[in-house]
Amino acid sequence: MTSKVSSPAEHADEAVLGELGEQRKPAGAKHVRRLDRVIIRFAGDSGDGMQLTGDRFTSETASFGNDLSTLPNFPAEIRAPAGTLPGVSSFQLHFADHDILTPGDAPNVLVAMNPAALKANIGDVPRGAEIIVNTDEFTKRAMQKVGYATSPLEDGSLDGYSVHPVPLTTMTVEALKEFELSRKEAERSKNMFALGLLSWMYHRPTEGTEKFLTAKFAKKPAIAAANIAAFRAGWNFGETTEDFAVSYEVAPAAQTFPAGVYRNISGNLALSYGLIAASKQADLPLYLGSYPITPASDILHELSKHKNFGVRTFQAEDEIAGIGAALGAAFGGSLAVTTTSGPGVALKSETIGLAVSLELPLLVIDIQRGGPSTGLPTKTEQADLLQAMYGRNGEAPVPIVAPRTPADCFDAALEAARIALTYRTPVLLLSDGYLANGSEPWRIPETDELPDLRVQFAQGPNHTLDDGTEAFWPYKRDPQTLARPWAIPGTPGLEHRIGGIEKQDGTGNISYDPANHDFMVRTRQAKVDGIDVPDVEVDDPSGEATTLVLGWGSTYGPVTAAVRRLRAAGENIAQAHLRHLNPFPHNLGTVLEQYDKVVIPEMNLGQLATLVRARYLVDAHSYNQVNGMPFKAEQLATALKEAIDG
After folding, report:
1. Is the pTM of the predicted complex or chain greater than 0.85?
2. 13, 571 Cβ separation under 8 angstroms
């Protein structure tokens, strides 16, 4: 966590990697070169601890004050075969002294722990980049396993790169020989050796990592000491070896952020905190009914730690039970949540429809992943939009909210709760694996900055019958929001029926009347259509753009980075980004009419484009990608330039 006091800076062009100062060499030290940004990728076997290594480097970078963005990438298998391409796990970190938006297109530094890691990632590494390889793992058998006929360290195939061969495993074992560890146990610390080396190269703080290791292995002090020793050995190796003649500095992003206290946060953690904040602002207990599923399970794990905030978590036996319990909690007066991914949304669809009929507040959090069916559990996609919009029987409209960055997941959770509580409706929040696992700095808000979400439960009769009798009508609506009253079970005189069969307007009695069904269907739709959402804002600084790029969800970072590149090259292009996908902002149609061309990049085959074309009769052009990875800024900039020129 770090405090930054500054004023917002103008956006910097992410396409440029330049030195901010001349090389300098303090007395007795190696050359130190200042850079404005760096992209590092740690890659190795699933058991090599690359995610932990990346997390620690990220935490120290956040505490140093850099802006950052991360991209963890790991296989779906719990333990894929060692040394194989499917078993490669990687963690990419982009950090800078200015405002950045993406994990970066290509790494400036690749740390490859074995031949599989090198082969799986070398295609992304530009010529001239630095590659640090663990030479101990480049055995004949390991190289043959991934298709290397000869060693890439010796056959000239890496001549275009700055290669640093380091016997990481051997050096780690040597550094830990004083500890009573087996060789296998000692080898497990090689990721800490690599972390120490990279921490030296980029002048990262070390105290936080040593405290982390001490706490993590508090019950195994020998293991903690060994990992700290490996970490320090990696740092000392960088300081003393002749192979690394230069270290690098990336200054804190002192002019990027508004004043405040910041911390590094992932999307799922931000969502968890947002849900807790919403429950406190609504003065309602938070109830999560959930079934574990990648990549949403972290929300269940996190919320289960916060019983002190009145949070109740229930790990159900399946997806249907999870949402059923959550809907029951909503009926009982809780801020109810269920978390899942695409396959789970399919299983929950009937109960979402029941929540539409009962008109109760319920948050359905969908952390999207590659589909269909089980698909790609650990890869990202945006392909659940049409499912969220229409994936229920009958006319069952549901509001849809989508965060745009990991930190924005906090605000999106509050907004979803506002809509659910105000309008008495289930709300679908569409995050995805890229946002869920990625991280960035987040300014911790003051409590007086959070919205007031308090609600009034029904307390007594709300209708007078023809004979003058006072009665409670559970479907008598607020004239402004069309929301029905929220009556807590056990409140005297407020007994009413619930169930999935159509209700009679007002009384809530079972009704098969055709006219009543028509009225109720149209009323539920009108309630969603009438939700108060902010107008979409258009970023068009020149006012002369004829092309608008329209995005939603996690495409915000790559799209904005691409737009910045084009503007830096002299192009005029406008940008708008949607948080509310149902209902759309009321001014969206007017905005779309102002531009000759509308381009919609999506990590699907054109789902938002389909909705926009149908609703507004605009010839929106899709730019699509469904490879399980987020867009690259350069890729999008090229596509948008073609759209401008076409």
Report:
1. yes
2. no
